[in-house]
Design a protein that fits this description.
This protein is an alpha/beta fold. The chain has helices at 18-35, 51-57, 84-89, 100-106, 110-122, 139-153, 181-194, 213-217, 233-250, and strands spanning 6-11, 40-45, 63-67, 94-97, 126-131, 163-167, 201-206, 223-226. Helix 1 links the parallel strand 1 and strand 2 (40-45). It has one domain: Aldolase class I (TIM Barrel, Alpha-Beta Barrel), CATH 3.20.20. It has an 8-stranded parallel β-barrel, surrounded by 5 helices. 41% of the residues lie in helices and 17% in strands. Helix 6 (139-153) packs across helix 7. The termini are close together. Bound molecules: ligand LBSJTCU2. Pathway: Carbohydrate biosynthesis; gluconeogenesis; Carbohydrate degradation; glycolysis; D-glyceraldehyde 3-phosphate from glycerone phosphate: step 1/1.
Length: 251
């Protein structure tokens, strides 16, 4: 069986100021230089204001950079917005779209998310599409719920597009612990089956993820989307090592 590459992402949300972000980015760059496992991809999503620093600090490394949001138009009179071509020009490879916080706090709708996905793909960015269920439910119902959201969001793109499906149970975001290993494995299995016709899809789990989780869930997902538990770069290093180990067991 071919070995699946693993992928780990980190979003810094709005937790750190510019200086603290710079320190964190340097620490991640040092860690990557001394041993980012060859079979693991890493992407980092700082705030818009730190994208330029991230591009400089990760230049020549295997760490990819992403943005936390994007507007759906490419250019024009849209005060305060950032377009996909601007992100591509700023060195972004990834763009996060549809995070639960953006849906809840900023009123993002399925239609807006779908237009953002289209814009990202049009500009050659890889969307990190965040999808999750509001409450714990039977795995088959979670899969149906998430796939309905996914179908709307991706209605305008080809199935050959490269997309990261960031499954984030809303109830597990900002919590003390992630969803249980059994729950993650059951939902991930269903999502993988439902996504079988998307050859370039990578499925990652987010929601209070940190060290120890991949050891429990093995290769149920392609990787993790980390938040708070990657602020400590030693914790991130441990997650990357676990990602590499779980690749080996899936071979
Ligand atoms: O976006 C997330 C990961 O980057 C997600 O919301 C999880 O955040 P966390 O609860 O701080 O792990």
């Amino acid at each position: 069986m071919p070995v699946r590459r693993r992928i780990v992402g980190v979003s810094l949300k709005m937790y750190m100021g510019l200086e603290r972000t710079q320190h964190w980015l340097h620490a991640v760059a040092d860690m990557a230089a001394s041993g980012l496992p060859a079979d693991v991809d890493l992407f980092v999503i700082p705030s818009f204001l730190s994208l330029s620093d991230a591009r400089t600090i990760f230049a020549g490394s295997r760490v990819a950079v992403g943005a936390q949001d994007v507007f759906w138009e490419d250019a024009g009179a849209y005060t305060g917005e950032i377009s996909a071509p601007m992100l591509a020009e700023a060195g972004c490879r990834f763009v996060e779209i549809g995070h639960a916080e953006r849906r809840r706090i900023f009123g993002e709708t399925e239609d807006m998310i779908s237009r953002k996905i289209d814009a990202a793909v049009r500009s050659g960015l890889v969307p990190v599409l965040c999808i999750g269920e509001a409450a714990k439910a039977a795995p088959e119902d979670v899969v149906l719920d998430c796939m309905a959201q996914f179908a709307t969001a991706t209605a305008g793109i080809e199935k050959t597009a490269t997309v990261v499906f960031a499954w984030e149970p809303i109830w597990a975001i900002g919590a003390a612990e992630p969803a249980s290993a059994d729950y993650i494995a059951a939902v991930a299995r269903g999502l993988r089956e439902a996504l079988a016709s998307w050859p370039n899809m990578r499925l990652i789990y987010g929601g209070s993820a940190g060290p120890g989780l991949l050891d429990q869930i093995g290769d149920a997902v392609d990787g993790l989307f980390l938040g708070r538990f990657a602020h400590d770069t030693d914790a991130l290093r441990r997650v990357l090592a676990e990602a590499s180990n779980s690749t080996a067991t899936s071979a």
